[in-house]
Write a structure and sequence with these properties.
It contains 14 helices and 21 strands. It is an alpha+beta fold. It has two domains: 37-206, Beta-Lactamase (2-Layer Sandwich), CATH 3.30.450.20; 285-434, Reverse transcriptase/Diguanylate cyclase domain (Alpha-Beta Plaits). Strands 2, 3, 5, 6, 7, 8, 9 and 10 form an eight-stranded antiparallel sheet that branches. Strands 14-17-18-16-19-21 form a six-stranded mixed sheet. Strand 12 (234-237) and strand 13 (245-250) form a beta hairpin. Helix 2 (34-61) crosses helix 8 (206-218). It is rod-shaped, with a radius of gyration of 44 Å. The protein starts with a helix and ends with a strand.
């Protein structure tokens, strides 16, 4: 139980360290991306402006067509003509621009319209919504001059050059459907005379949608707020606006969530990598026949070691040459495997079983409560288990030499264990000896 608790505590401690590192690195990564998001929004916005400017070319080259008073739908563009007469054929141009805008505005595209001074302010909308129709049919309102005045748009070409051709509004709610939108206005001049007014309505969520796309592409947790500078990291000034900025900050809940996810994943990887490395080290450090640790792997480490409260048990199979001669080397290998299996099965996980020679094994006992009585009893238990084995049809025995180390070098303890084993062999075999 204590081992499990220690492993869990170790895992949590490593996870905490990795979480702190992950949080700091991920925070720094997001901070590096501030300027990129600013540039990303600006570039997208100027793409919108570039597409809107195309309307001037369409308008200048559009022919006049005759039309009756009322509402019409031409090439998916709604047209309201206040009276019979000729109007500019702008449907194709508006449709082309609308499709281009939808490619990178997406679901935040609301409507694209043109108010033309021809024929008492002919109005084009893509799409023309039912509330638009209701307003047009119920009113003789001068939409063109109303928008020009209410939005303080330049009425002359010279003024537009001074103040910029575009005008972008703050978010507002449309009176007829409560949809929160932003409007972008673009006056259309022909030979420096103001002829028409283009207006693009986009949902007020457009900049947040661009931010979310940026987050998906860059794996960031940035966010924007149009009214609150709480937790402000950076302010983005929008072009062609008056006192209309975006406030950029990090989503701290997502920052914590992803940092924890990263840290947990990395900790798991480190945990399993450690286990895999341990397995590989053990695999390549073990004898292929017995799966005991190989002498050449562990001996260099042991020779540097001081035994404070450890013991060595040396085990050697009796008359092994005779077994090979009578039953063959294949059976001799089975005897070695069986001996190794019985030894490993009857020691603790904290103890170490080493194949020290062809038919010779070393067991290192580790623990706080090892004394001579415990050592003798453990050695006798191992000797007896092998003597009484029934896994093979031939009986065989082992001789055992033991030595207890108390603040002694490994080499000194090994020398005494080897002498004890030699003593057991010379005194009749199948016995435990200690010096």
């Amino acid at each position: 139980m204590m081992i499990v608790i220690k492993k869990i505590a170790s895992f949590l401690f490593v996870n905490l360290i990795v979480f702190i590192v992950s949080y700091c690195l991920y925070y720094s990564y997001n901070k590096i991306k501030y300027d990129e998001l600013d540039e990303y929004i600006q570039v997208n916005l100027y793409k919108v402006f570039d597409n809107l400017e195309m309307i001037s070319s369409f308008y200048a080259n559009a022919p006049f067509v005759s039309i009756d008073k009322g509402l019409h739908n031409i090439e998916k563009v709604g047209i309201y003509a206040p009276q019979d007469g000729e109007i500019k054929s702008l449907s194709r141009g508006i449709s082309i621009i609308s499709e281009k805008l939808k490619d990178f505005i997406g679901d935040d595209f609301w409507s694209l319209g043109v108010i033309d001074t021809n024929n008492k302010n002919t109005i084009y909308f893509s799409p023309m919504r039912v509330p638009h129709i209701q307003i047009f049919l119920k009113s003789d309102f001068d939409f063109f001059n109303h928008v020009l005045t209410s939005e303080n748009l330049p009425s002359t070409y010279e003024l537009s050059l001074e103040n910029g051709l575009f005008r972008q509004t703050e978010p507002y709610k449309e009176s007829f459907n409560e949809q929160s939108v932003r409007s972008i206005y673009y006056p259309i001049y022909i030979k420096r005379d103001l002829k028409a007014l283009l207006l693009l309505d986009v949902k007020s969520t457009l900049y947040q949608s661009w931010t979310e796309k940026f987050n998906r592409d860059q794996f960031t947790v940035l966010n924007i707020d149009e009214s609150n500078d709480s937790g402000l990291i950076k302010k983005i000034s929008l072009p062609y606006t008056i006192n209309c900025d975006l406030y950029l900050y990090m989503d701290k809940s997502l920052l914590l969530k992803y940092s924890f996810f990263f840290s947990f994943l990395i900790t798991l990887v480190l945990h399993y990598a450690g286990r895999s490395l341990h397995y590989l080290v053990n695999f390549y450090g073990k004898d292929t026949m017995t799966e005991c640790i190989r002498r050449d792997i562990i001996e260099p480490k042991l020779r540097k070691k001081i035994f404070y409260n450890q013991a060595i048990i040396m085990v050697d199979i009796d008359f092994f040459k005779k077994i090979n001669d009578e039953y063959g080397h294949g059976f001799g290998d089975e005897v070695i495997k069986t001996t190794a299996s019985l030894l490993k099965r009857n020691i603790r996980k904290s103890d170490t079983c080493i194949r020290w020679g062809g038919e010779e094994f070393m067991i290192i006992l580790n623990g706080k409560n090892i004394d001579l009585d415990f050592l003798v009893n453990k050695a006798e238990q191992l000797r007896f288990k092998i003597e009484e084995q029934t896994l093979l049809h031939v009986d065989f025995t082992v001789s055992v030499g033991i030595a207890l180390g108390k603040k002694q070098k490994f080499t000194e303890v090994l020398k005494r264990a080897d002498m004890a084993l030699y003593h057991a062999k010379n005194n009749g075999r199948n016995q435990v000896a200690y010096l």
